[in-house]
Design a protein that fits this description.
The chain has 281 residues and is an all-alpha fold. It has one domain. Helices cover 80% and strands 3% of the residues. It has a two-stranded antiparallel ribbon with strand order 1-2. Helix 5 crosses helix 9, helix 6 runs antiparallel to helix 7 and helix 6 packs across helix 8. The longest helix has 41 residues.
């Protein structure tokens, strides 16, 4: 038993997280995602809305620690408008609501206070774009006749990359990918995630969407790039604000943003891939 604890501690130390709670939380989140999207898509919308609202609050509080005061309720209202418009108006709703909401958000912040306006307004626009605009593409994937399958594709692609990058990084990781941003990430992990994503993308797009496996493999490569960029950007935000995690809401993960970062960057790319399939394949 002592040996098992020693092994577990060694894995946790090398991985930078507690493995068992991380797995349990991941299973719980996956259960909610697939239960809601298959039972009633509107429930999935509600789940994503809750996740985005928590994400907005996490980042706003993180910014506050960095000396940038942002009103949670204003950011949440802006994000809600964007998400509701996206769900009901699809791409047109997302585009129009973004064009209208951003200027209104900036003017609202000006009315609240003129102090540090540039810093506050640019931070607020960044948060709104990062969470609500990019997050809107998750809703665009879901709000489709094949929504459940499209969300499955998104989840499988991200899971292949994250899981196998994690495993390869823990077992083989020696060469740091971006040591000044995310010290735990390695080139070995990136390669492991890439192999899994290519295989996963090939299989899921060939068998579920009946397109050439090469196209699925290309989407797998794209996922490695987007998911890694999303993770690195979130890590850069935390480093810039001098915090380890956005919060401790999810045991073994940190905050909602520590789970959402890859999806926010991958969802638009996967949505675009489906648009290409619909038009040209």
């Amino acid at each position: 038993m002592a040996d098992l604890h020693s092994i577990n501690d060694a894995i946790n130390k090398r991985a930078g997280r507690k493995l068992l709670p991380s797995i349990l939380v991941s299973i719980f989140l996956l259960a909610i995602i697939f239960t809601t999207i298959n039972l009633e898509p509107l429930l999935f919308f509600g789940f994503i809305w809750v996740v985005i609202m928590i994400g907005v609050r996490e980042i706003a509080h993180a910014y506050r620690k960095g000396g940038i005061e942002l009103p949670d309720y204003v950011l949440m209202m802006a994000a809600t408008v964007l998400l509701v418009a996206t769900w009901n108006g699809e791409t047109e709703g997302l585009a129009v609501s973004t064009g209208l909401t951003i200027p209104i958000l900036m003017f609202t912040l000006l009315l609240i206070s003129q102090k540090d306006f540039i810093k506050r307004s640019t931070s607020a626009v960044f948060i709104t774009f990062y969470l609500a605009v990019l997050g809107g593409f998750i809703l665009l994937l879901a709000n489709h006749p094949d929504g459940a399958l499209r969300i499955l594709a998104l989840v499988v692609l991200i899971a292949c990359n994250d899981t196998f990058a994690y495993i390869a990084g823990v077992l083989l990781g020696k060469h740091k990918l971006a040591p000044s941003i995310s010290p735990k990430k390695s080139w070995e992990g990136l390669i492991g995630g890439a192999i899994a994503s290519i295989v996963g993308g090939s299989l899921i797009f060939h068998y579920l969407f009946e397109v050439n496996w090469i196209f699925g493999a290309a989407i797998g490569v794209m996922t490695v790039i987007t998911a890694t960029c999303g993770d690195l950007i979130e890590s850069a935000i935390k480093r810039d604000l001098a915090i380890k995690d956005m919060s401790n809401l999810l045991p073994g993960h940190g905050g909602i943003m520590d789970r959402l970062d890859s999806a926010l960057f991958t969802a638009p790319a996967v949505w675009f891939a489906f648009e290409l399939i619909a038009r040209y394949l």
